Amino acid sequence: MIVLYDNNGIPVVNDRGNLHMIDGEDKVRQIIYNVLSTMKGEDLLNPNYGLDIKTLKQTPNISPTVARAIIVDAFNPDNIVGISQLNSVVVTIEGTAIYIDISVTSSDNITVSEQAAVEIQ
C-alpha cells in the first residue's frame, strides 16, 4: 500500500485525518503519476528516480523516438519500488505536449495501462 496524492502533490487524508492508503491498480496508477511528476534528480535518496523533463523541454523539435527513450529510462524497474516490468510505451507529440500511453506490471503482478500528457513548453 502507498499514500494517495492529489493532482497538486498533496497527500490525501480520509475522514479521520489519516493518510489515504491505496493498493492494487490504484497503487500502480499512483506510481506512474509519481514517476512522471518527479523531476529526475529531485529525490536525493534515489537520484535516478523520475522523468528527465529538463531534456524533454530543452531538446528542440524532439522526436517521439527520443522522447520515448527518456520515458523508458524513467521507468527502469531498478529505480522504482513497486514496478517489476515496463510492458510498452507509445509516445505522440502534438504541439507543446507529449502524450504517453504506458503499460507496466507491478511487483504484485498487476498490469495497468495508463494515458498521460507532459507539457514541454
Outline the structure in words.
With 121 residues, the chain is of the alpha+beta class. The protein has a domain at 37-119: Nuclear Transport Factor 2, Chain: A. It has three helices and five strands; from the N terminus they run E-E-H-H-H-E-E-E. It has helices at residues 24-37, 53-58, 64-74, and strands at 2-3, 21-22, 83-94, 97-106, 111-119. It has a three-stranded antiparallel β-sheet. A two-stranded antiparallel sheet has the order 1-2. The chain is globular, with a radius of gyration of 15 Å. The model has no long low-confidence stretch (mean pLDDT 90).
Task: Write out key terms for the chains shown.
121 residues; alpha+beta; Nuclear Transport Factor 2, Chain: A; 3 helices
List the helices and strands and how they pair.
Blueprint (H helix, E strand, L loop, with lengths): L1 E2 L17 E2 L1 H14 L15 H6 L5 H11 L8 E12 L2 E10 L4 E9 L2
Antiparallel strand pairs: 1-2, 3-4, 4-5
Produce a short descriptive summary.
By secondary structure, this protein is α+β, with helices and mostly antiparallel strands.
Q: Which structural class do the helices and strands define?
A: alpha+beta
Instruction: Give helix % range.
Output: 25-40%
Query: Main beta sheet: strand number and arrangement?
Result: 3 strands, antiparallel
CATH top level class name of the domain at 37-119: Alpha Beta
Q: Estimate the strand proportion.
A: 25-35%
Cα-atom Rg, whole angstroms? 15 Å
Mean pLDDT: 90
Based on DSSP secondary structure assignment, what is the total number of beta strands? 5
Spatial shape: globular
